[in-house]
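Recap from last week: sequence in, structure out.
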Amino acid sequence: MGTEQGTAKDKYHLLNRGYHFFRNGDWERAIADFSEVLGQDLSCAVAFSNRGMVFIKLKKYDEALSDFNRAILLEPKFAAGYNNRGLLYFMLGEYEKALDDFNKAALLNPKKSEIYHNRGRTYIKKAEYNRAIADITKAIELDPGNPTNYYICGIVLDNLLRYDESIKYYSIVIQLKPSFSGAYEKRGIAYNAMRKYEKAIHDFTRVIELNPKQASAYYNRSLTYEKLGHQNLSIIDYDTAIKLSPRLFKQL
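Predicted structure tokens:
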């Protein structure tokens, strides 16, 4: 009995340590720990699923798929296994398979915000924006402190030209995470679309303060200055954008 308890404790320790390594980007040591668990217990679905996520980071997609399949075969009601395999399919552009897995995950664990986040992103890829909004809104309901979900919802609303609504979401992102430069830039673009040019200038300037090498912020501010008739300021920003990102010039 003592040996069995010790082994279980060792497995638990390895799973937690492997997850710690994963969170810190130490892929090789994460794989080593999850593989050691599987060396003790080939029926551990969590170890297969976690190792599969590491394989994704290493771009070893066949190995990842194999591990997710094993996890689901071992535990057919393992929501994380479906969610993780759905992420792999999403990355591979196999959106229907991704949706199928996210749907199963949501049925098995309807209180997990990450699942709705992932399914919402998949609907965005399929340009099914109303479904995307419904899922991201559900993710926000389950995890109201996560700024990423508000940001994604703002992007979807931009695609629907609902700029007044998207601005509200970007503003919440900024409240939750004032250093989120992308939210300022997206809000600035939305203000631009609504011809609120002074507010747009303010947001693009804030992006530049947070990230002085963000070429797109200079470019967007240049366009806004031009609309306001500030030609000299527009040229200065345009030149800065080109210096920071020569590719930008080639794309224009």
